[in-house]
Amino acid sequence: MRGIILAGGSGTRLYPITRAVSKQLLPIYDKPLIYYPLSVLMLAGIREVLIISTPRDLSFYQELLGDGSHLGMRFEYAEQAKPRGLAEAFTIGCDFIAGEPCALVLGDNMFHGQDLSRVLWRARESVENEGGAVVFGYPVRDPRAFGVVEFGDGGRVLSIEEKPEHPKSSYAVPGLYFYDGKVSDIASQVEPSDRGELEITSVNNAYLADGQLSVQLMGRGMAWLDTGTPEGMLKAAEYVEAVQSRQGYYVACIEEVAFRRGFIGADELRSLGEEMSKTDYGRYLISIADEAERA
Length: 295
What we know:
Layout: E1 2-6, E2 27-28, E3 31-32, H1 35-43, E4 48-53, H2 58-65, E5 74-79, H3 88-92, H4 94-97, E6 102-106, E7 110-113, H5 116-130, E8 133-139, E9 147-151, E10 157-162, E11 171-172, E12 176-179, H6 183-188, H7 200-209, E13 213-217, E14 222-225, H8 230-247, H9 254-260, H10 266-275, H11 280-294
Parallel strand pairs: 1-4, 1-6, 4-5, 8-13
Antiparallel strand pairs: 2-3, 6-12, 7-14, 8-11, 8-12, 9-10
């Protein structure tokens, strides 16, 4: 399975701080925002990732993340000249996907929770073994501000409505999607919406029409964090700081995830930590390598 992070857009809701820098490069506590969706793909065992961003910002992502080899991964990069909709990620990334199953995560979405890895692997195995698509449902107090999923027995999706006045459930659809190898072909047939965008809802509805769209619920103990406003970014940073200071482990530490998933070994992890040894982040990586060598 391959993964795509869509990190484009102009970030106008965060002006003026995003006038000169991509939102997904801004810090959430001690690491760039893009580390959080990247760690989600890594937790799903995905080692090949395409990062899509604007022509202005793409070089900064390349400088930050490189080719991925230091993490035992492979990163590729592609431009989205204008924000023409989420579904365009699959036409931009058509050659990269190459007919393989694919996960798409939005570059400003943060997920955390004890069961996250299990949820991700279940979605991956579903599309790899059975085909179709998997979206997620996250309970929110006021679903009218989101895409809302209505589902029946066995997680079968009945409908997805965008910002409905009368929601049919309390479950919003977050920016994380798993698809089989047909997704690029389906996306290429999507027509622009009234907003002039290629909507991800159109892709989901195509799978729904074929009876191949299912939903997995993210329930109690899972966090889906909004970073679309300054207040949201602050609250997300406070959440990460609280988890890390109270529990002693780091959230979305991509080097640690690479090590835990077997992408790199203890020596590689130690080397990455030594490059940042003046920071708590670097010392944390070294401590994990030390612990592994003592085990």
